[in-house]
Amino acid sequence: MKAWVTGARPGIDHLRLEDRPEPRPAAGEVVVATAAAALNYRDLLVIGGVGAWKPATARVPLSDAAGVVVDVGERVTRWSVGDRVVSTFFPHWIDGPIRPGVLRNSLGGAARDGVLAERFVLPETALVRVPDNLAFEEAATLPVAALTAWNSVVEQGMAGPGRTVVTQGTGGVGLFAAQFGVAVGARVIATTSSLHKAAVLARLGVTHVIDRTATPGWDTKVQELTEGIGADVVVDVAGGNLDCAMRSLAVGGVISLVGNLGGFDASFDLRQIVSGAQIRDVSVGSREMFERMNAVIADRDVHPVIDRVFPFGDSVAAMEYFRCRRHIGKVCISFP
Ligand SMILES: NC(=O)c1ccc[n+]([C@@H]2O[C@H](COP(=O)([O-])OP(=O)(O)OC[C@H]3O[C@@H](n4cnc5c(N)ncnc54)[C@H](OP(=O)(O)O)[C@@H]3O)[C@@H](O)[C@H]2O)c1
């Protein structure tokens, strides 16, 4: 089978397409024929050999894929040949709070091969079913961006009717966060950098869109829109503007801290913590959260926003395109 693998030197240009032996399932494992994969920022860190993401040996990158079960090992009970499945980012995080060891074992990271291959093998416990309403490309976008957004908005943020969610941007996490906020009946206020992107957010049901380039202190606008109450949850992909996020919170509100697109340095007034505000780190999510999310995706017929789909053979072009960060939603790869 064909697989893309990282080269001897780091970087997208050094990826190579290789023939690898057909995977065989050990007891408790499942082989999946990949139908579609999706890109995340972290994949560029693995391929680029950045810090702890640097693989010690040639690795198949990417964590997010959907496909069909083609072989099952002994004692597999959850899946049969022909089932439509999606990978999970942390194969060992099934339920409960995150535990030591989970982070080191992420799929397509430094320590284990990922899914940018015609077939991949995983423990049967590390897969979830594709929601019935989704095509494979759509399902492939779920393991990281969607689950991170779901965890931020619903699991940590407890969003629902009568609650206000602030989301940031029109990338993978930002759009899913907006969609889940709308799906669970919350009021969603989103920031973005352009009018053109604001139209996409409005189509998804976002109530108010704030142009963050024209209004860098968007907390004032959030307070105005919420009649001085503030937001119950802010899904923060920027990190660096934490002060603004803190000032936009309601008493007892939570910042789900997802990313650091705006830098690593942040400061805020400690008195805001005294008012019950919380900052909580988000690390994707567990398989149980994934299953709860998929139930809502199917029930409310939520469809991921896909910017572009590249063929498997053009995976390098897909990564170059993704690296330029002009996408809205997700960038996917389809398999022949
Ligand atoms: N903690 C986790 O588990 C986890 C999981 C997934 C991703 N992440 C991290 O979360 C971040 C977002 O991931 P993604 O996949 O959504 O990326 P993405 O698809 O590249 O989207 C990024 C979007 O965020 C907006 N943005 C960029 N810089 C911003 C800033 N300084 N302030 C506010 N908004 C900004 C832009 O949208 P507009 O132009 O519309 O504003 C941009 O399109 C990345 O740092 C990623 O590494 C963390």
Walk me through this protein's architecture.
With 336 residues, this protein is α/β, with parallel strands linked by helices. It has 2 domains: 2-141 and 304-334, Medium-chain alcohol dehydrogenases, catalytic domain (Quinone Oxidoreductase, Chain A, domain 1); 146-281, 3-Layer(aba) Sandwich (Rossmann fold). The chain has 10 helices and 15 strands. The protein has helices at residues 41-47, 136-140, 142-156, 172-183, 195-203, 218-225, 242-247, 271-274, 287-299, 315-323, and strands at 2-5, 16-19, 29-38, 64-72, 84-87, 119-123, 127-129, 164-168, 187-192, 208-211, 231-236, 249-257, 278-281, 306-311, 330-334. Strands 3, 4, 5, 6, 7, 14 and 15 form a 7-stranded mixed beta sheet that branches. Strand 8 (164-168), helix 4 (172-183) and strand 9 form a beta-alpha-beta unit. Helix 3 (142-156) packs across helix 4 (172-183). The radius of gyration is 20 Å and the shape is globular. The model has no long low-confidence stretch (mean pLDDT 95). It binds NADP nicotinamide-adenine-dinucleotide phosphate (NAP). NADP nicotinamide-adenine-dinucleotide phosphate binds at residues 40-42, 144-145, 148, 168-174, 192-193, 197, 212, 237-238, 258-262, 282-284, 325.
